[in-house]
TrEMBL record:
It comes from Trebonia kvetii. It comes from the Bacteria. This is Coenzyme F420 biosynthesis-associated protein. The lineage of its organism: Bacteria, Bacillati, Actinomycetota, Actinomycetes, Streptosporangiales. It holds the Pfam family Zincin_2. Signal peptide: none annotated.
Length: 369
């Protein structure tokens, strides 16, 4: 289906170089980021009212190739159910060992690698939910800016990952206090770690939804051709500057649309919650938080034409809307019902807000809180 080795080699080859720093400075950045993930745990607990249960998992500070390798590992885990489904229907697709199958998997691997190369210079951090079973590290080359080794990984526990060169690049571009900015970023990612380690059912719910979404793929050749046409239309619309679908939205089946609505709702919630906490900690934790937020928001909205096209095609604009809508939902609910009232969202899948409720928090408040 996808030659992941090709994806990694392509991604690493085309990933942009990070900012120039000395070896001593690189090591200092990596050490500070690792230390901050522990420092911000208490402020996150105080703001959210959530406490992790059991191990919170490791932290990896990676460079751009390390981020690419880490994500390929996660993709393999997520796509495994679909690969098994394809194998069961081997008569409908080129055999894995055939010339057509080999060439096709390398082509898709190269395409995946180019996307990862593009994203590798834009991601500041993430909480990795899906790690290969028994994986024992932050990935072989997860080495920060200039070679500092990443921490290990625990089976069954996610991993908080920070992309050091991107954090340094953005803090320089914004002209903000680097120590404040690093703490601010760590607050967002630590919030995700707290979400998934303090709400026992959340990780399994997201993984189950993603598996169900993938298995809802229509493998009929005619349906695939129709979706490819839709994808071509989405790309053309993005080039024209329209507000059409992203590539993911254009390629989905009717069954997947309903599932994507649920996935989008929960991811909007967790992303918006992270954004809310970043700003809610206040000046006592991040002295220049107001300046950072203002400049960071301006940066999100100031991109060139080609960048806008790529963001729309890949659905990055959708993610930016998730930050804004989710943060507004959290702020509105907390103002109305307090943090204890908001935390009812974590009771069960039934108390999660729908996409409609995220746009209209009053509906969720009346239904749940």
């Amino acid at each position: 289906m996808i030659d992941w080795d090709t994806a990694i080699s392509t991604g690493v080859r085309f990933a942009k170089q990070g900012p120039q720093v000395s070896l001593a400075d690189a090591r200092a950045v990596v050490a500070e980021l690792r230390g901050l993930t522990a420092v911000v745990q208490q402020p996150v607990r105080e703001v959210t009212g959530l406490t992790s249960q059991g191990s919170v998992g490791p932290v990896a500070v990676v460079d751009r190739p390390g981020w690419i390798r880490a994500n390929v590992g996660g993709f393999r885990v997520v796509l495994e159910p679909l690969a098994e489904k394809l194998a069961e229907r081997g008569n409908a697709v080129p055999a894995a060992g055939s010339v057509i199958g080999t060439v096709g998997s390398r082509v898709t691997g190269a395409q995946a690698g180019l996307i990862l190369a593009y994203l590798s210079s834009r991601v500041l951090g993430q909480y990795e939910l899906f790690l290969p079973p028994g994986e024992g590290g932050g990935t072989p080359s997860a080495n920060g800016l200039n070679g500092a080794a990443a921490n290990g990984s625990s089976p069954g526990v996610g991993r908080l990952t920070l992309v050091a060169p991107n954090i340094v690049m953005v803090e320089r571009d914004l002209g903000v206090d680097p120590h404040d900015f690093r703490r601010w970023v760590c607050l967002h990612e630590e919030t995700h770690r707290v979400q998934f380690t303090s709400v026992p059912w959340l990780r399994g719910y997201v993984q189950g939804m993603m598996t169900e979404f993938l298995l809802a793929s229509d493998l009929d050749p005619g349906a695939i051709i129709d979706r490819l046409r839709s994808a071509a239309g989405a790309v053309a619309g993005a080039v024209r500057g329209g507000d059409g679908e992203s590539l993911v939205e254009a390629m989905q089946t009717p069954a997947q649309r309903a599932l994507l609505d649920k996935l989008t709702a929960v991811m909007t919630l967790v992303e918006g919650h992270g954004d809310y906490v970043m700003d809610a900690v206040g000046p006592q934790v991040v002295p220049s938080v107001a300046e950072i937020r203002e400049k960071f928001s301006q940066r999100r909205g100031s991109t060139g034409r080609m960048e806008q096209i790529l963001r729309r095609i890949l659905g990055i604009d959708l993610k930016m809307k998730q930050y804004e809508q989710g943060s507004q939902f959290v702020a509105t609910v907390v103002a109305e019902a307090g943090m204890d009232g908001f935390n009812k969202v974590w009771t069960s899948p039934d108390t999660l807000p729908t996409r409609a409720e995220i746009s209209n928090p009053r509906e969720w408040l009346e239904r749940v809180a």
